[in-house]
Amino acid sequence: MVLPRLRTLLPLLLLVMFTLSCQSQDTAAKYEIIHSMGSNSQVQTQTVEHSYTIGMVPKATENSYFNQVEDGAREAAEDLGVELIYEGSPVADTEQQIRAIRNLIARKVDLLAVSANDAEMLRPVLREAASQHIRVITWDSDTVPDARELFINMVDPETLGRHLMDALALQMGEKGQYAILTGAAGAANMSEWVKWMKLQNSEYYPDMLLMETDATNDDPQKAYSEAVRLIEKYPQLGGLIGSSSVATPAAAQAVIDKGKTAQIHIVGLSTPNLMRTFLHKGTVQNVTLWSPKKLGYLTLVLAKNLLEGGSPVNGENIKNVGENRVKGDTVIMGEPLDFTKTNVDEYAF
Prior knowledge:
Distance between the termini: 90 Å
CATH superfamily of the largest domain: Response regulator
Shape: globular
Number of strands: 15
Largest sheet: 7 strands, mixed
CATH class of the largest domain: Alpha Beta
Mean pLDDT: 88
Radius of gyration: 29 Å
CATH topology of the largest domain: Rossmann fold
Order of helices and strands: HHEHEHEHEEHEHEHEHEHEHEEEEE
CATH architecture of the largest domain: 3-Layer(aba) Sandwich
Strand content: 15-25%
Structural class: alpha/beta
């Protein structure tokens, strides 16, 4: 009686086994297809992991300061799982910067983070990006407020401008002629710093006379030639302030070449690497800056937070950066840092 029943069930068992075999082969086939994609599967995984694409535009890509910013931004992008496109022109040129921004708009990035060479000239293209639902923030150098949502500043501009004026006044004995070498003429951060230098001058140092404020377009050669011109034009010149990272070392070299190291005092902004030799020689007593790498890291953190619906919080402690301050639509990373011959070798950027 058992055998006939087995004969009856046998076709059914064979059908089940065939179905399971097909499913197994289909699953195996699917498994092989997924893994046979090789680099394509990695690209797909990359796309899933990188939920946002952030386009970051510096003033100039061939500038050691902005190279440090890029290093910090790339480190943050890896930590946060976002895609970073760091793109710009080799030199500080507004028209080239606009072209870089348009290219990122065409690539449909989720957010643009820009260090503006010219506050007004960038306004139309940044508003165009916003009209295409691309979020826009600025860092290092601002544009007009209605062209972006948020500005990430390195330091409070009043604190920095007054600090640089105080540093020069101390070395000059609070009297004499001086000049200022800035970066790009239309850069908002440069203009703001100079405004506070002048105010500090008028309020506290009536015997110090500003002879010229000269834009150098963040070009080392132009900064050097302008420093030489100022030294030759004003024989009684007693000080130079460099408000861009390339202007200050260029001014120091010009003072050496013109044999004026005993007469002309130099203060300003620059990196430890660019100023190390001048500080150790005594050509420059102190130079001021902040960590550009931290600025790059902070920019990416705040950009991703913004894309996720978050807003900057005053007093928030950001990993790898520290505690920041929020003033309206501006985030201030920290306080200015002075480098001297006694501490400059502690820093390598």
